[in-house]
Amino acid sequence: MRLINKELKSMKWTLIATWKMAAEGMRLAEANLRKSGSADQALETVITAVEKDPRFHSVGYSGLPNQVGVVQLDGGYMNGDTLSIGAVGCVEKVASAFKLARHCADQQFNNFLVGEGAAQFAVQSGMEMMELLTLEAQMIYEQRRAEPKPLSSYKGHDTVGVCCLDGQGTLAAGTSTSGLFMKKPGRVGDSPVCGSGFYADSEIGAAAATGVGEEIMKGCLSYEAVRRLQQGQDPQRAASSLVAEFTRKLIRKRGRAEAISLICVDKEGRWGVGTNIKFAFVVSDQDHPARVYVAEPDQDGCTIRAWNDTDQDVD
Ligand code: SD4
After folding, report:
1. Ligand 1 pocket: which of 74, 159, 263 to mutate (most atoms <8 Å of CB)?
2. Is position 216 within any domain?
3. Which domain holds residue 151?
4. Residue pLDDT, tens place only, 86-129
5. Where is the signal peptide (predicted)?
6. What predicted TM-score, i.e. pTM, was given to this entire model?
7. For the chain, how many structural domains are there in total?
8. What is the CATH number of the domain that holds 123?
9. 313 marked ligand binding residue
């Protein structure tokens, strides 16, 4: 039945990613999706383009280090056809946390590896290994260490999160991040936690999150977004009302809420975004090339408009 449904599917596809830094990789991925490329390939193209790029200090190579000056990465992956998941947490010296997470999803067991064991598995699997701390990231670290004031929770981190519906009807979601700047050694955020940082089910939709993992995990927000899609909410409503409601709940219960942003796409290729901060994201589909948008929270959820030159303050 699933195959028949897939054959009947049009070649409609949608790709959505967190933050402006994803734009270049999105353009590469969309060329592939036009030629019947898979959602998995699209995720890998977008995420590895960001991981490799030393201009971005929140993901992969040149990511900002933890309190002791070491770059520790988190990454996650889920395929919505098979519900396969793969994830790595707190892994060092791996060029692509996403590729390693995806590789973990190919194993029958041991889908979520952390620390030394994850790095050993990367080496055994022939993954590219490298020093991730660049001179520039080290300088940012040294400067920050010399400052007396405590680090604000939303300084120096942005996860690349991607959701894709491909032309064959497969949904997938993936993430990669160096996590919070100056995090404690061993700290793992939401990005590799299935249901919090990412979720995908090809019968419903896919979602991915960015922001302060300690908040996102309190609401299992990616799973909750997909659950709301299953209830029939349209993606924009599902994502924006979820983030707005959850932000209010955190404030009610805890007196404050840190940054949370969420992207999602449903099985029809409709997309949605929710955020409680100014947040940039990139979308493309079979009719529209990759374009950067900005979402800002308002009373009902958030407003969305095209990114322009006045938006230099948002990553
Ligand atoms: C984390 N959620 O490690 C990640 C960081 C992030 O935008 O996404 N920042 O908590």
Report:
1. 159
2. yes
3. 14-309
4. 999 999 999 999 999 999 999 999 999 999 999 999 999 999 99
5. none
6. 0.95
7. 1
8. 3.60.20.30
9. no
